[in-house]
Structures are given as structure tokens and as C-alpha cells.
From TrEMBL, chain A:
CDD domains: PBP2_DppA_like. Belongs to the bacterial solute-binding protein 5 family. It is found in: Periplasm. InterPro entries: Peptide/Ni-bd, SBP_5, SBP_5_dom. Residues 1-23 form the signal peptide. Keywords: Signal. This is ABC transporter substrate-binding protein. It comes from Thioclava marina. It comes from the Bacteria.
UniProtKB/TrEMBL annotation, chain B:
PROSITE patterns: ABC_TM1. CDD domains: TM_PBP2 (cd06261). The keyword DNA repair does not apply. Residues 96-285 form the ABC transmembrane type-1 domain. The chain crosses the membrane at residues 31-51, 98-125, 145-170, 259-281. It comes from the Bacteria. It comes from Thioclava marina. It is a multi-pass membrane protein. InterPro entries: BP-dependent_transpt_permease (IPR050366), MetI-like (IPR000515), MetI-like_sf (IPR035906), OppC_N (IPR025966). The lineage of its organism: Bacteria, Pseudomonadati, Pseudomonadota, Alphaproteobacteria, Rhodobacterales. Belongs to the binding-protein-dependent transport system permease family. It is found in: Cell membrane. The keyword Plastid does not apply. Coiled coil: none annotated. This is Dipeptide ABC transporter permease DppC.
Automatic annotation (TrEMBL), chain C:
This is Peptide ABC transporter permease. The keyword Transport applies. Residues 96-325 form the ABC transmembrane type-1 domain. It comes from Thioclava marina. The chain crosses the membrane at residues 9-30, 92-123, 135-160, 198-218, 264-287, 307-328. SUPFAM superfamilies: MetI-like. Its main location: membrane. It is found in: Cell membrane. It is a multi-pass membrane protein. Belongs to the binding-protein-dependent transport system permease family.
Length: 532, 299, 335
């Protein structure tokens, strides 16, 4: 007997004894281990894929495949005239999962909602720091402590949020992973047993899948929640096989050891696409890679100079060489999958001759500048160093001498925030909630210019007025118009060279049906089925 | 008396020793093969620009991942091209420079620091000995590659830093050897004689005792030479050694990993180059040990 | 004897203290601010930065942090990971069985093949068997194992498709409350095919990890054996007409085992270093890969806790080897 036939025999034996007839299992070759199973203290997509997506629900949710909001644990909601009060009407009869050592005695209600937010903002909540080092970065990062003035329980199934100022993106924020609703009853029980940290090890939610077991750095197992309020998932078992190496993930997919995988290596795309048993899903990522000039320094304070430099950089060459085709040239600071993307805008053409002339006109001669290249690979930028080398060569053609500088990642992030920093920085952003405010205000607003998150230190009054007004308006059509105008201002002023939006690929077996790629970049397996 | 301290073995016998050494060395067929291959590698590294018809860094974008023996408009790629269209053969030839450079620098660094520390510890004894050897014990308690990894993380990834890290991890072996040898030599007659003749500590340590501890150090040196090549390649493989586009063999392997099933040549050749070089040095090392170690000479 | 053992243990204490200093010190001089890394592109306000730094204790004087660390270590607390916010010791223990299983398997392979081959080679010195095995051993000793692992994957998983690509057991098998030792769990579960699945996942990584120790042990056994065969008492025994088999079996082998055992003990440290590479190649969920990941994530507590545990384990194993050595060879004890 060869090893292989022994394996096959063993596999067949188990299939017969274990699952029983018709148990459907979906295996997802995930790219890394989750940091934990409580989504609130974390910020990485990998952790959300394993926690908030399968196990938890939020008050409102993103409609699959879009960045639009639909009802979740809240059946409906009212927004007051002044935009300051949000009242959520909660769904009744929703059950939390049962796990080893805990079975819920009551349904989901307003207490759970209040607890889920209170623990992140209230220092006196026992779960504010339930384990050493736990902190709610996303809650703080989305400015929730300032935005939310108070949360009140009106009755068991009604919760009222009062905001300190009108904030249209707030609803989208409530669909984010940090806003997942956890069971207060479970948390109280853990606190009573002095094992609060277990909330991060064994999650109890209301979501489509129940957590079964996690074997560190190897496997996560879930089973379908039969009582899920939208109906039981078509598959019975969901397994995450943690496989950090993209080449290995691909091999496992081709060998049928898993049915779906994220983040293939660009080099393997061709092979995957030509495999008749595999379908490759494809979508622009909700991100942007940019090249931010320091607009407070000469000669970069002159929009003409910035535009000239933009015109001297061949972005298509970067897409080809660095993204290996897995990306598209960016013309706006927000990605094309986002609502209010202004497609009417014309990108500055690649034209070194004209650029040179423009620089001459602006009186720029023998310019020497730094190009900051980050040391790590990010979803929006596979290789910043190589990008910088290409830019360096392009700039040399228009008579600009560029030096490439780089620092360790943490240092890079903090040093690039220094307003006295010289030159231009390569950096990028991945969207959180699909709201344009999450790009335009966070990266280009005036308050961000002060904090340094606006790496161009660009504070343009017209632009800032437009995005502030858009934030305070709840009418979608009007907001769209305002953001479209803001993009026009951005393009005229050119504080950045917008480099690229990367493309996200999702190879899966042909047997997988119903998988919808999320523009937000998460991986969600509710609604996915396997055909035989 | 002073001539005796200068060179405790007359020049004539030294030449005889060398002849004897060569006699035993060339008896060992493996060692001679190793030496030959090693010389070839050195030649390849030295004359890399002459031997290769391509620059190791030029990317030919129309011949990505070309298999070995590919003819193209640019010329003949004997060992194919890598993922961005660089000639594998040129990269391997230039890579030999890095590997040899790494071996030499690491051994010199580790040897000089280790020998000085070992001499100090062995010669002075007492608390000097205790402190030095304790520190060595601590370093040796960590698996070498792990410690080197942490060192490189501190110093920042790069070839130079990887070499420094490996040298730090290796020097305790030299220190221990030297200390042991010094302890056994310290009270021998010729040292006593030199001391009586008024030689100072420095002179005694470096000119009198050290030359007599050389044999084990040479053997350890060759061993470290080959291990250094392996370990720096391993660091490169883990992404912490030489950084791309440097054609260091370990780094090349690490870059080639994603093509493991599609383009066997980008994975196979760098590893083979490492194996052959290290094997040659180890063969030489075996020969050296047999020729230098009188106890095993006739076995 | 007890004095000998106690002495050995006492001798270790200063080294252990040194190890804590190194583990702590290294990690403190790692460049990069873990608080900034946690925030990423999103960034944080200076106030928030100060608050988090304080919460993690990085703003206290370095010596205070060290003694705090030492105090906690003495109480079995290695701190909490900055990434997962879970106790480092728990994380270590969750992954440790995987590394031990791999290491033991590799060691068994290395000894089971290395010792007999070394003995045979010594007895038949100069024969083709001797030459062939010793050349192979030298090749094994010169092997860049990260490349060797890739080659084996190409051959056995890619072309022949005999072995799985990565992982520890087929996902079909699941052992709740398992010990973490997959072979043991598979055996105990009684599920058909579980053991073969676990073994087929283990085989390639073990072979890769065993390569260098196997070569070293074979070479070491051969030279120890040769030395003993040349000793007077063996010659005497031979001269007295003792059958060669008994000479080798009783006298030679036993005495040759002393240096061999030392070599095996020394290989434990090597094994740990090899595990870093092997686990990275095979995505084996063990300590080696965890350390590499922790270093790149600047997870201070995990790196220092891991360094400490690994060094302590290596030292304890070396101590045991030392003691065994003392037991076998009484001369050492009284020195």
C-alpha cells in the first residue's frame, strides 16, 4: 500500500463514520492566525474574518457586496431632525450561541447593546481592560469617544444614541466590526468566575456560525447556528485552515484540501485562472496608495510644481512592475467601488516634456527631494521600495534628483507625520466603513493636517468646507454631490499623486456557490454553499 | 634566550611541518576535491564579471522565468531567468562573492574577538575568566540561529548586520577553544622560560602561547566558515539577511519560494550553489583536521 | 552523587540570571515602538500614545521593568502578548507540543539511523559502505535545510502527491481536549486513518529537521567507535580471542556511547535552530515559527518569554546530558 492509497482509505473511512450523510463543510485557507476572537480590541481584517463576520452581528450591517447599510440586529432606526439622536429598534427573539459552560437564559436585548459600547468607552466598566494591554483602538480611532455623547436604554428593545454633533457616517460606523454586539449575560458570568479573558478565547455571539474550537496557528472550527435570525447557513461546518504561505494556499486549493482562499501571490494568478476547477473572483480593493508632498514646504507649496511632478511619474509602469497587473491607476483619492467616486475627473497625463516646462515656469531648478518608501508590504502597496526606484528614475528625466529614504515601520509612520519632514511620502489607506468621509476627512481634512494623519499637511478651506458640510448632512444625494466637488478641488490642488488602487483576488473551487466579495475586504461565508 | 621566545620552533622545522601537513592533506582524496572545488568557486567569484554575459541586476522584461538554455534576443540564458527577467547564472556567479565574503568576514570577526577573550580568560583566570566564560555560556544557551535572528532584528535587516550577528553568535566557540588551549599551555616549560626571560603578558599571550593553539582554531575556523555561509543564507531566506535585489543565494531562494512549483530552476540552483560551496569547505575542513590533529592522523 | 547534581544545578543559576538579562535587554533595544505598530496607518493622538505606553509599562525606568519582569518570571508569569493580549506562557504551551513532536520524531530518526550507520562504518573502515555513508553524511551536514525542505515538497507533495502540503493532520480529524501531540491524540481517538494522516503530515518535516543531526551523529559515532576500537582493552579482548561481535557489542559500543550521548544532547540546541526554518517552510504551528513571527511583529513580551523558555529548555537538556554522562563515566564526577 502506498502512502497515498493509505491516506485515501483513511479519508474515506472517516467520511463514512464522522460527518454522516450530507454534512457540508467549507474549508477556507486563511492567511494568518486571528489575534483573538473579541473583535473590539483589534484592527486587522484577519481577526475580523474569524470573529465579527462569522460569530457576531452588528446593529446595522453592510448589504453583501456593497457599502450600503441594511438592518442587522436593529430592525429599523430613526434619525432626529437635527441629526443628533439615533434611535434603534431591536429585533426580538434573537438567541445567543451556547458554548461549553454557558447557555443563554434570555434573548438578545438592549442591555447587550449598551454593554457592548459602554465597555469600550467607559473606564469604569469591568471589561474596559479585561486583560492586560487590551484597548479599544478602533473605537478610539473612529473618534467614538467624542462623537457619542450618551447611550440610553428606552426599553428592552429600544436604544437611543445621542451624538455631540451631526455625523452622517455614524450609521456606517455602527456596521463596523468594533460595533459587534456581545452577550452581557456571558460577560457577567465570566466576570463572576474570574475568567474575563475568555471572552477573547471563546466568543458568544448571535451570528450565522458558532465557534467550536481553535488550535493555535493551525485550525479554527465553526458550525452553523441553526437559530440564526436570517436562517441557517447552507453549509454545516466552516473550517479555517491557517496557511500563511500563498504558494501553499494555492496548492491546497488545487489539491481540494480547501475550497476557497484569499490573497493569492500575483505570480500565481495566471496558473489559477487557467485551472478549469477554479474560479478567480476579482474586485478593486477599498484602498488607495498615494504619494503625499509636504505642501507646507517650498517648492511643494505651489500646486503647479506638484502637478508637474505628478505628470512626470509614470503610474502605469508602477502598476505593471510593482503590482504585476493586480491594481489600477488611481486618479481620485477614493476607490472606484465607493459611492460618490467622481469618474468625470481627468487624470493628469504622463508627460515628462510638459512637466519639465511647467517646472521651468515655476522657477524650479536643480530640485533635490526625498522619496519616503515604507519598509513593509501593505494591501495597497506590494513593494514601496521598488515603486520609489521607478519614481526616482522618472523624476531624474525631468531634472529632479530624488533620494530614497526608509525607516523601520513604526518610526516611518511617526516620522512622516512631522510637519518639518522634507520631500514626499509613499503611503496608503484601507477603508473602514465604505464612507467617503473615512478617506477624505481622515487623510486630507484640516484637523488631520494638524494631527499629521494628513501626510501632505494640506489644509484647503474650500475642500474642508465641502467635506465638513457633507459629514453633517444626512441626505445621501446631497452628500454625493458635495464629495464629487471635493474631489475636483483635490485634483486641482494635487496635494498627492494618487498612485494606485490594488485589486483583490479570491480564488475558489468551482463547487463553491454564493460567495459574494465584499468591497470592504472582509471575508464572509454566510450564504455560501457547496455543490457536489 | 630571546630567540627562543621569538620563534620557539626554528624556521626549518616549520617548513618541514608544512610539508608534512601537505603530505597528509593530499592523502585525503575528499579534501583535495574540496580544495579544487573551493578554488573554482573563488575563481568564479573573482572573475564573475568576465564569466557572465549579463549584469546580475538588469531585468529583461520580455523573458520572465525563462527555463535554462533559453535563447533570446538578449543572448543565451544558460540557467534561465528569474521572476523579473534577470539572468540566473550571472546572479549565481555574483552571489558567490557574497557567500565567500560572508564566510571570511564572519570567521575573522568571530576568531579575533573570540581569541582575545579566550586568551584573556585563560591567561588571567580568576574573575576575568569567570565573567568572560559566563557571558559565553549565556550566549551558547540560545540556539544560534534564534539569537542571530534577534540580533538582526535589533540591528535591522541587511547583509552586514547579518554577518555581525552570526559572528557574535560564533565567537564563544573560539573563546572556549582558546581558553582551553591556553590553560594547557600556560604552565609548560617554554612559557615558563619566556616568562623568566622577562616577556610581558601581552607578548607571552600573543607571541608565545597563541601560535601553539592554532591547530584547533584553524579547524574551528573552517567549520565556522561553512556554517556562516549556511546561517547567513538562512537569515536571507527568512527575509532578514541581504535584501533584494542583492544576489545573495539565501535571499534569492527566499524570493523564489513562490515559484516553487512553476519554475524549478529559480529554486534549485541557488540551493545547489550553497550546498556545493559548503560541502567543498567541509571536505577541506575534514582534511585539515586529519592533517593537523596528530591523534587522528593515522586513523 | 547528590553533591555532584546539586553543584551542577547551582552552577546554572548565574547563567539563568544572565539569560533573563539577555532576553529582557535584547527586546528592550529592539528598534520600533510597539504602540505605533499597533496603530498602523490609522495613527493615534499623542495623549492616547502616552496612555497606552503607560498602560503597557514602557514608560517606567528600565531597571524597574527588569525587576518586575524577573519577579513575574519567578511566579511563572511571562507577561502578555502585545498582539493577542493573552499570556505568553499559554501561547508557548499551546504551540510547544507541536515542536516537541517534530523534534522527537526527528531525533528518533537521527539516532535510529545515525548510530547503526556510524558503528557499521567504523567496523568496516575504508570499505565502500564507509565511504558512501560518510560522504552522504557530509553532504547532509552541508545541507541548507530550508532548500532541502523545498526540494522535498516539490518532489513528494508537488510531483508525486504522496504527502500533504502542510498542516499536522487532515482537517477531517478533530480531537477536542487533545494533548497537542497529534500522534498520541490520533492513537487515543481510535479513529480509523487518523494515525496515518498524522504520520504522513509529520514525515517530511521530520526528515528535513533530522538531516543535520543525523549526519553529525553518524560521523561522531564512527569516530568515537574508531577511537575505542584502537584502545588497549579492546585489543586485549581481541587478542584473548573474544569473538569480534562480543568485543564490539560489549566493550566498544558501550564506551563509544559516551561521546555519542553528548553529541545527541548538543543537538537539542541545533534542533531548535532547525525548527525555526523547518516550521517556517512547512507552516508547522510550533515555537520556531511563532518566534519568527513575534520578532517581526515586535511582540516584546512574546520574544522575551520565548527566548527565556527556549534557553531554559536547552540548558535543562544539557544538564540532563551532563548528569547522564556523569552516571556513565564516574571519572567525570570526581573531577
Amino acid at each position: 500500500m502506498t502512502i497515498r492509497s493509505m491516506l485515501l482509505a483513511g479519508a474515506a473511512a472517516v467520511l463514512m463514520t464522522a460527518g454522516g450523510a450530507g454534512a457540508k463543510t467549507l474549508v477556507y485557507c486563511s492567511e494568518a492566525s486571528p489575534e483573538g476572537f473579541d473583535p473590539a480590541p483589534y484592527t486587522s481584517g484577519t481577526t475580523f474574518d474569524a470573529s465579527s463576520h462569522p460569530v457576531y452581528d452588528q446593529l446595522v450591517e453592510f448589504k453583501p457586496g456593497t457599502t450600503e447599510i441594511e438592518p442587522g440586529l436593529a430592525e429599523s432606526w430613526d434619525v432626529s431632525e437635527d441629526g443628533l439622536t439615533y434611535t434603534f429598534h431591536l429585533r426580538q427573539g434573537v438567541k445567543f450561541h451556547s458554548v461549553d459552560g454557558f447557555s443563554p437564559t434570555r434573548d438578545f436585548n438592549a442591555d447587550d447593546v449598551i454593554f457592548s459600547f459602554d465597555r469600550q468607552g467607559n473606564k469604569d466598566n469591568p471589561y474596559y481592560e479585561y486583560a492586560p494591554g487590551v484597548s479599544y483602538e478602533y473605537y478610539a480611532g473612529m473618534d467614538m469617544p467624542t462623537i457619542i455623547k450618551s447611550i440610553e436604554k428606552v426599553d428592552d428593545y429600544t436604544v437611543k444614541f445621542t451624538l455631540s454633533e451631526p455625523n452622517a457616517p455614524f450609521l456606517a460606523d455602527m456596521a463596523m466590526d468594533f460595533a459587534s454586539i456581545i452577550s452581557k449575560e456571558y460577560a457577567d458570568k465570566l466576570a463572576a468566575e474570574d475568567r474575563k479573558a475568555d471572552i477573547n478565547n471563546v466568543p458568544v455571539g448571535t451570528g450565522p456560525f458558532e465557534f467550536v474550537a481553535y488550535q493555535k496557528d493551525a485550525v479554527i472550527r465553526y458550525k452553523a447556528n441553526p437559530d440564526y435570525f436570517k436562517g441557517k447557513a447552507p453549509i454545516d461546518d466552516l473550517i479555517f485552515a491557517i496557511t500563511p504561505d500563498p504558494a501553499v494556499r494555492m496548492q491546497k486549493l488545487q489539491a481540494g484540501e480547501c475550497q476557497i482562499m484569499p490573497y493569492p501571490a500575483p505570480a500565481d494568478l495566471e496558473a489559477l485562472k487557467s485551472d478549469p476547477n477554479i474560479t478567480v473572483g476579482e474586485q478593486p480593493g477599498l484602498n488607495v496608495a498615494y504619494f503625499a508632498y509636504n505642501t507646507t514646504q517650498k517648492p511643494f507649496d505651489d500646486p503647479k510644481v506638484r502637478k508637474a511632478l505628478n505628470m512626470s511619474i509614470n503610474k502605469q509602469a508602477i502598476i505593471d512592475a510593482v503590482f504585476q497587473g493586480a491594481g489600477q491607476v488611481a486618479k481620485n483619492p477614493i476607490p472606484p467601488t465607493m459611492w460618490s467616486y467622481n469618474d468625470a475627473i481627468q487624470d493628469d497625463p504622463y508627460d515628462p516634456e510638459a512637466a519639465k516646462k511647467m517646472l521651468d515656469e515655476a522657477g524650479v531648478k536643480d530640485l533635490e527631494m526625498n522619496i519616503w518608501a515604507m519598509p513593509v508590504q501593505r494591501p495597497y502597496m506590494p513593494n514601496a521600495r521598488r515603486t520609489a526606484e521607478l519614481m526616482q528614475a522618472d523624476l531624474a528625466k525631468v531634472g529632479v534628483k530624488a533620494n530614497i529614504v526608509s525607516y523601520e515601520w513604526g518610526e516611518y509612520l511617526s516620522k512622516s507625520k512631522d510637519p518639518n519632514r522634507d520631500g514626499a511620502v509613499i503611503l496608503g489607506w484601507t477603508g473602514d466603513n465604505g464612507d467617503p468621509d473615512n478617506f477624505l476627512a481622515v487623510l486630507l481634512g484640516c484637523s488631520a493636517a494638524e494631527s499629521g494623519a494628513n501626510r501632505a499637511f494640506w489644509c484647503d478651506k474650500d475642500f474642508d468646507d465641502l467635506i465638513t458640510k457633507a459629514r453633517q448632512t444626512s441626505d445621501m444625494a446631497e452628500r454625493t454631490k458635495l464629495y464629487e466637488q471635493a474631489q475636483v478641488v483635490f485634483k486641482e490642488q494635487a496635494p498627492w499623486d494618487t498612485i494606485a488602487h490594488s485589486t483583490v483576488f479570491m480564488p475558489m473551487s468551482n463547487k463553491v456557490t454564493g460567495y459574494v466579495m465584499s468591497p470592504l475586504g472582509g471575508h464572509d461565508f454566510y450564504g455560501v454553499d457547496i455543490s457536489e | 634566550m630571546s630567540e627562543v621566545t621569538e620563534t620557539n620552533i626554528p624556521a626549518g622545522t616549520r617548513r618541514e611541518q608544512l610539508a608534512e601537513f601537505w603530505f597528509y592533506f593530499k592523502e585525503n582524496r575528499g579534501a583535495v576535491v574540496g580544495l579544487t572545488v573551493f578554488i573554482l568557486v573563488v575563481l568564479a567569484a573573482t572573475f564573475a564579471p568576465l564569466l557572465s554575459s549579463f549584469s546580475p541586476d538588469v531585468q529583461y522584461r520580455d523573458v520572465l522565468l525563462a527555463p535554462p538554455m533559453t535563447d533570446s534576443a538578449h543572448g543565451h540564458f544558460w540557467l534561465g531567468t528569474d521572476a523579473v527577467g534577470r539572468d540566473m547564472l550571472s546572479r549565481l556567479l555574483f552571489g558567490a562573492r557574497y557567500s565567500l565574503f560572508v564566510g571570511v568576514v564572519v570567521v575573522l570577526l568571530a576568531l579575533s574577538v573570540g581569541v582575545v577573550l579566550g586568551l584573556l580568560a585563560g591567561w588571567f583566570g580568576g574573575w576575568v575568566d569567570t565573567v568572560i566564560m559566563r557571558v559565553m555560556d549565556v550566549i551558547l544557551a540560545f540556539p544560534s540561529l534564534l539569537l542571530a535572528l534577534v540580533f538582526v532584528a535589533i540591528l535591522g535587516p541587511g547583509l552586514i548586520n547579518a554577518m555581525i550577528a552570526i559572528a557574535i553568535v560564533y565567537q564563544p566557540h573560539f573563546a572556549r577553544l582558546t581558553r582551553g588551549a591556553v590553560l594547557s599551555e600556560r604552565n609548560k616549560d617554554y612559557v615558563m622560560a619566556a616568562r623568566v626571560a622577562g616577556a610581558g603578558n601581552m607578548r607571552l599571550m600573543f607571541r608565545t602561547v597563541l601560535p601553539n593553539c592554532l591547530a584547533p582554531l584553524i579547524v574551528q575556523g573552517t567549520l565556522s566558515f561553512s556554517n556562516a555561509i549556511l546561517d547567513v543564507a538562512a537569515l536571507g531566506f527568512l527575509g532578514l539577511g541581504a535584501q533584494p535585489p542583492t544576489p545573495e543565494w539565501g535571499t534569492m531562494l527566499s524570493e523564489a519560494r513562490e515559484f516553487i512549483l512553476r519554475a524549478w530552476w529559480v529554486v534549485t540552483f541557488p540551493g545547489l550553489a550553497i550546498l556545493i560551496t559548503v560541502l567543498a569547505i567541509n571536505l577541506m575542513g575534514d582534511g585539515l583536521r586529519d592533517a593537523l590533529d596528530p591523534k587522528l592522523k593515522r586513523s | 552523587m547528590i553533591r555532584f547534581i546539586l553543584g551542577k544545578i547551582l552552577w546554572l543559576i548565574p547563567t539563568l540570571v544572565g539569560i533573563t538579562i539577555v532576553a529582557f535587554g535584547f527586546v528592550r533595544v529592539l528598534p520600533g515602538d510597539p504602540v505605533l505598530l499597533m496603530a498602523g496607518e490609522r495613527g493615534l493622538t499623542p495623549e492616547r500614545h502616552a496612555e497606552l505606553t503607560h498602560q503597557l509599562g514602557f514608560d517606567r525606568p528600565i531597571w524597574e521593568q527588569y525587576f518586575d519582569f524577573l519577579w513575574k518570571v519567578l511566579h511563572g508569569n511571562l507577561g502578555d502578548s502585545l498582539v493577542t493580549h493573552k499570556p505568553v506562557l499559554n501561547e508557548f504551551l499551546a504551540l510547544f507540543p507541536a515542536t516537541v513532536e517534530l523534534g522527537l520524531c526527528a531525533m528518533v530518526l537521527a539516532v535510529a539511523i545515525g548510530v547503526p550507520v556510524g558503528v557499521m562504518a567504523a567496523i568496516k573502515r575504508g570499505s565502500w559502505f564507509d565511504q558512501a555513508t560518510m560522504t552522504t553524511a557530509l553532504v547532509g551536514y552541508s545541507m541548507p535545510i530550508f532548500w532541502w525542505g523545498l526540494l522535498l515538497i516539490i518532489l513528494f507533495s508537488g510531483i508525486l502527491k504522496w504527502t500533504p502540503v502542510s498542516g499536522r493532520i487532515s482537517l477531517m480529524y478533530y480531537f477536542p481536549n487533545g494533548s497537542g501531540f497529534m500522534i498520541w491524540d490520533a492513537l487515543m481517538s481510535g479513529q480509523k486513518g487518523a494515525l496515518t494522516s498524522a504520520l504522513s503530515h509529520l514525515i517530511l518535516p521530520s526528515v528535513v529537521l533530522a538531516t543535520i543531526p543525523l549526519a553529525v551523529i553518524a560521523r561522531q559515532t564512527r569516530s568515537a567507535m574508531l577511537e575505542v576500537l584502537g584502545e588497549d582493552y579492546v585489543r586485549t579482548a581481541r587478542a584473548k580471542g573474544m569473538p569480534p561481535r562480543r568485543v564490539i557489542g560489549i566493550h566498544a559500543l558501550r564506551n563509544a556511547m559516551i561521546p555519542v550521548i553528548t553529541t545527541i544532547g548538543l543537538q537539542v540546541g541545533m534542533l531548535m535552530a532547525g525548527a525555526i526554518l523547518t516550521e517556517t517552510i512547512f507552516s508547522w504551528p510550533g515555537i520556531g515559527k511563532w518566534m519568527v513571527d513575534s520578532i517581526s511583529r515586535r511582540d516584546y513580551p512574546s520574544v522575551q518569554g520565548g527566548l527565556l523558555m527556549i534557553a531554559a529548555i536547552v540548558m535543562v537538556v544539557n544538564l540532563i546530558v551532563d548528569l547522564l554522562y556523569g552516571l556513565i563515566n564516574p571519572r567525570i564526577r570526581h573531577r
